[in-house]
Design goal:
The complex is a heterodimer of chains A (393) and B (619).
Chain A (H helix, E strand, L loop, with lengths): L1 H27 L17 H10 L6 H13 L14 H36 L4 H14 L3 H15 L11 H4 L6 H26 L6 H26 L2 H37 L3 H8 L4 H27 L5 H6 L5 H10 L3 H29 L3 E4 L2 E4 L2
Antiparallel strand pairs in A: 1-2
Helix pairs in contact in A: 1-15, 4-5, 4-8, 4-10, 4-12, 4-15, 5-10, 6-10, 8-9, 10-12, 11-12, 12-15, 14-15
Chain B lengths: L1 H16 L6 E6 L8 H4 L6 H6 L1 H4 L4 E4 L4 E4 L10 E5 L2 E9 L14 H14 L1 H4 L3 H4 L5 E8 L2 E6 L20 H12 L4 H7 L10 E7 L3 E6 L9 E4 L5 E5 L4 E4 L11 E4 L6 E6 L3 H10 L4 E2 L10 H5 L4 E6 L3 E7 L9 H10 L2 H8 L5 E2 L25 H14 L3 E4 L2 E4 L4 E3 L2 E4 L9 E6 L5 H16 L4 E6 L1 H10 L5 E7 L6 H6 L17 H12 L3 H18 L2 E6 L2 E6 L3 E2 L20 E2 L2
Parallel strand pairs in B: 1-14, 1-15, 23-24, 23-25
Antiparallel strand pairs in B: 2-3, 4-5, 5-7, 6-7, 8-9, 9-14, 10-11, 10-13, 11-12, 16-27, 17-25, 17-26, 18-26, 19-22, 20-21, 28-29
Helix pairs in contact in B: 5-8, 8-9, 12-14, 18-19
The chains are: A mainly alpha (393), B alpha+beta (619).
Chain lengths: 393, 619
């Protein structure tokens, strides 16, 4: 297994190097540079533009700029933003990353969970009206023009009905006298989420296998989920920061709902197809032959194997969580990494654009490794032999 | 009677016990400010969004332009600067001018503004070299002009200048630098000067901004909103500016016992407009929206009272805004223009008659009125009519009022006069009735055919209006055998090829302008024709150059105006630019929530930062 991970890591580094190089040259291929922005001000002379180019290192030959950029990326120094000179790129990424991760991680979890549940259910009831209706709805939203859907959702639920906040991620009236910044609260929310996930992983990985009875395991699982959730709520409540976290959550409802509406269809169809394949397997038939209840056969036999491609897809998607989404961030005024990338590319801010790309690239590559490892670990039909995955015989 | 008094007393006590409701001016902006540091904000981070919420609000200048007429008036100064005196130092001739500073003006922390702050500001700009600070700083402390600034007493300073500057460098340049507080910035400046990279260290410094105006920094919730809070110590509160029909201005401040008025012209009769400084609101909140749709919905719903946008709101939103009777839509002229220019280093663009012929063929009125349905208005001069004082209304406008046939006839005559001929000459049978046969194959005066050439213009995605104009210009040019092809491309390609490479035949772009028309010099003087210069077309007319230089050096408004008018006549005749059109800036605000002292102003309310210090909250 270690050799397998090692090989994957080496491949990842090479992939990352190629990706960073391609990204760099695509950005450089755009006509003009950041000093073009000043060609619209007649009082900014050519000398001032040249001075700016010199300060930003844009007067150096392209290969020196490229080597400097690579050195920066691999030494963890992402340089200084051009458009927010002399603010470090790291600062900007660290400022915007928590917002992006909280929103898109939540949306991913919600949409995958809904997709998984529905996919499992409609596969079991294949050919029914419910199957046709759910599939039609899922495909409709999956193929919907997302920016328009976002605006319609905003117009309907926020503007016309007034049920939800119109836009942005916080209300100024709530935060005007807040003792800490919204970024601090986002970071605390992420920490809370991380601890919760760790608790669940530890519980499910260490405690549950040692419990002999089914009811005991169910009770323990419920305790883990419930206890974790209660502990989280209690902490937020006693810290006095609950109203700020709730304000963020309240503003997340509309973008998460819109993202989930668009995304759940894909997961649902994946799960449905996977289930349809799995339920034809011999061991599912054997489970039925033993007289087990339909629900047990569906959930404990068929779905456990059918979920593998969904988990792989989820792991890959989580990698893209850090890149955010330009359309979502624009429509819902949720400025994160996606919008940062767009703005940086638009304004020739090469260090910021390549920094954000590097960050996204690293996460996506890591997500691929995690997906590979998870798949290898969870699929009983696969074995790792000499660092390569082979089908078990 | 007694019970009524008791009841009233109880009611008054109850009301007094209620928490005060803050009057908030909620606005929408589309991009986040990037810095609180004025040296970065007016330097490499010089964005309009930074100016709206930070340095445009916090700082004042010795002299400024009083909106809505943009008359040049003292702000921190007590009166106009003294006339220049010539002095000699170490064999070098310098020019001095003294400026008195108003007394009784306080910074937001309560300390008085003195000559020390003014001297510190200018000496800092010189110490760091304004060219290295970048952005707008070079025009505030041009090192070729400003030598130093000295303190005469607590409320007077003396400027030492390397040459006698004109209005552009002096009244509209050096004297309009934002004055910063010495107490706040001195330690930062000293640290920066002692560092390896002084400019970078200065511009990277995180400083809670000093403020002298109606508002000071409140809170910045990155990505979401920015808040400025009323400055209770603002010395400008209650200051009245009166604008008279003859262009005169009077300023009165009873708090600081300050009175000033223009002398030429002097105030006469009743003022047209009286503006009293606030603030009248407790805070200004700038909510950051990433798209106009959301901001429009927020305005309709009453979450914001005004939307900032340097380009104004898109016309497509007008119908939607009209659905709410509480939303007031306003339109103002912009101070800018979209234009077409030629590479006058190449043939046939170096022939004035060719340029005049192209200008004659272009029917601005037809495109703006019939094709663009009034979204844009025609414009033909390099100083827009909206900038009334500096605009010359008498200049030649080629083809003005002509029919298509008459334009073709006039253009053919111009080209023939210059020696052009055709493989098949256009024939105009009845110019008034547009009865003509198009021509083909324009031939240069030297007998060579005019080679096909391209006109770079913005693609519809960037600017559909200019793209439309470009296609019509292509069609009109081809009608008389000019082999022009419009190439619609992105802004950056045009900008790079025009300014950095000067590799173009014709291109179409636009400008936003300042009030003082020194752009006449920068766009058209032959010294600006090098790579990276703004005279990308390479226009070169020694007679015009002399007028442009004199304009830059002019020391009185009257002299400068005469020269600006003369320069506009040259440009109208020589046609280095064909000015095409501009768009009015459309804005909207909630009249049930806020009230402005005026809404008619060049560039719209955004041009004057949304008037935070004079806006009144209605609830």
């Amino acid at each position: 297994m270690l050799r397998f991970i090692g090989i994957r890591l080496v491949q990842a580094v090479v992939t990352l190097l190629v990706y960073m190089t391609v990204t760099y040259f695509i950005l450089q291929a755009m006509p003009g540079d950041v000093t073009v922005l000043f060609t619209q001000n007649p009082r900014i002379t050519a000398e001032v533009r040249q001075e700016l180019a010199r300060r930003l290192g844009l007067d150096q030959p392209w290969y020196l700029q490229y080597l400097n950029y690579l050195k920066n990326v691999f030494t963890g120094n992402l340089g200084v933003s051009f458009t927010q000179y002399p603010r470090p790129v790291w600062d900007i990424i660290v400022e915007r990353l928590p917002r992006t991760v909280v929103l898109f991680f939540t949306a991913n979890v919600v949409s995958f969970y809904i997709g998984f549940l529905l996919g499992r259910f409609v596969a079991w009831r294949r050919g029914s009206r419910f199957d046709y209706a759910t599939t039609a709805v899922g495909v409709t939203f999956w193929t919907a023009f997302y920016p328009l859907l976002g605006l319609i959702m905003m117009w309907l639920f926020a503007y016309s009905l007034g049920w939800l906040p119109l836009n942005q991620f916080i209300s100024p009236s709530v935060w005007r006298d807040a003792p800490l910044s919204s970024n601090d609260v986002f970071t605390l929310m992420l920490a809370n989420l991380g601890l919760f996930v760790l608790l669940l992983l530890a519980g499910h990985g260490l405690a549950l296998p040692r419990i002999g009875t089914v009811s005991g395991r169910i009770l323990t699982a419920a305790g883990l989920w419930g206890g974790g959730a209660l502990a989280s709520v209690a902490w937020w409540w006693q810290s006095g920061l609950a109203r700020y976290a709730l304000d963020i959550v309240w503003h997340m409802v509309l973008p998460v709902a819109t993202l989930s509406l668009v995304s759940f269809g894909g997961t649902m169809l994946l799960m449905r197809d996977s289930m349809l394949e799995t339920i034809r397997e011999d061991y599912v038939m054997a489970a039925r032959a033993r007289g087990l209840p339909e629900r047990t056969v569906r959930d404990r036999y068929a779905a456990r194997t059918a979920i593998l491609p969904v988990i792989t897809s989820f792991a890959l998607n989580i990698g893209f969580v850090v890149s955010g989404g330009i359309v979502t961030e624009t429509v819902f005024s949720w400025p994160g990494i996606g919008l940062t990338l767009l703005e940086a590319a638009r304004l020739y801010d090469y260090p910021l654009a390549t920094g954000a790309f590097a960050f996204t690239g690293i996460f996506v590559v890591l997500a691929h490794i995690v997906a590979d490892v998870l798949h290898a670990l969870m699929d009983p039909r696969l074995r790792i032999v000499g660092g390569e995955v082979t089908a078990a015989e | 009677m007694r019970w009524r008094l008791t009841a009233l007393l109880l009611l008054a006590m109850a009301v007094a016990g209620l928490p005060a409701v803050a009057a908030t001016y909620e606005t929408a902006i589309f991009e986040e400010p990037t810095t609180l540091n004025v040296f970065a904000g007016l330097g490499p981070q010089a964005t309009v969004w930074n100016s709206y919420v930070t340095y445009g609000v916090y700082y004042s200048t010795l002299y400024g332009n009083a909106a809505p007429t943009f008359a040049w008036v003292p702000q921190l100064a007590r009166d106009v600067p003294t006339p220049f005196q010539e002095v000699t130092e170490n064999g070098q001739t310098l020019y001095t001018s003294d400026v008195e500073i108003r007394g009784g003006i306080r910074w937001a922390d309560g300390s008085l503004l003195t000559a020390d702050d003014v001297v510190f500001t200018y000496q800092t700009l010189l110490a760091f070299d304004a060219n290295k600070l970048g952005g707008n700083w070079p025009s505030y402390a041009n090192p070729d002009v400003l030598a130093r600034v000295e303190k005469l007493n607590d409320y007077a300073v003396r400027f030492y200048l390397k040459k006698q500057p004109g209005l552009a460098d002096w009244q509209y340049g050096i004297l309009q630098a934002p004055i910063v507080q010495k107490k706040t910035w001195e330690p930062v400046v000293q640290r920066a000067l002692a560092s390896e990279d002084p400019v970078r260290t200065l511009q990277a410094a995180e400083v809670t901004p000093d403020a002298i105006g109606a508002f000071k920094y409140g809170r910045w919730e990155r990505g979401a909103f920015f808040e400025n809070v009323a400055n209770p110590l603002s010395s400008f509160k209650g200051e009245v500016t009166e604008f008279y029909p003859n262009g005169a201005v009077r300023i009165t401040n009873s708090r600081t016992n300050f009175t000033w008025a223009t002398t030429d012209p002097a105030p006469e009769g009743q003022p047209d407009l009286r503006v009293e400084e606030g603030p009248y609101v407790d805070n200004v909140v700038y909510r950051i929206y990433q798209n106009q749709n959301a901001a429009i919905l927020a305005l309709l719903r009453g979450e914001v009272s005004y939307i900032f946008n340097s380009l104004g709101l898109q016309r497509g939103f007008e119908q939607q805004l009209r659905t709410n009777p509480n939303v007031e839509i306003i339109r103002n002229n912009t101070n800018g223009f979209r234009y077409l220019t030629f590479n006058m280093r190449r043939e046939p663009f170096n022939i004035p008659e060719f340029r005049q012929a192209v200008a004659t063929l272009i029917d601005r009125e037809f495109v703006t009125r019939d094709i663009l349905q009034g979204v844009a208005f025609p414009l033909a001069t390099v100083v827009p009519p909206g900038n009334e004082y500096w605009h010359n209304p008498e200049v030649t406008v080629w083809g003005q009022g002509m029919t298509r046939g008459q334009r073709i006839q006039a253009a053919v005559e111009l080209l023939k006069k210059a020696g052009f001929s055709w493989r098949r000459e256009p024939v105009v049978r009845d110019a008034a009735a547009d009865d003509y046969t198009p021509g083909e194959g324009l031939i240069m005066p030297n007998g060579q055919p005019v080679q096909p050439f391209e006109m770079l213009a913005p693609a519809p995605g960037y600017d559909p209006l200019r793209a439309t104009f470009a296609l019509w210009i292509e069609r009109w040019a081809q009608e008389i055998g000019i082999p022009l092809r419009a190439r619609l491309t992105d802004f950056n390609t045009i900008s790079t090829r025009a300014y950095d490479e000067q590799d173009f035949d014709m291109f179409m772009l636009g400008w936003s302008l300042g009030i003082y028309p020194d752009h006449i010099y920068y766009f058209f003087h032959s010294s600006q024709a090098g790579l990276g210069g703004f005279n990308a077309g390479g226009y070169n007319n020694p007679e015009f150059d002399r007028v442009a230089e004199a304009l830059l050096d002019a020391q009185t408004l009257e002299e400068a105006r005469e020269l600006a008018f003369e320069a506009q006549e040259y440009l109208a005749r020589d046609v280095p630019y064909v000015v095409l059109f501009d768009t009015p800036v459309m804005e909207a605000y909630r009249r049930d929530q806020i009230q402005y002292p005026y809404t008619e102003v060049l560039g719209g309310l955004q041009y004057i930062y949304g008037l935070p210090s004079t806006v009144k909250a209605m609830r």
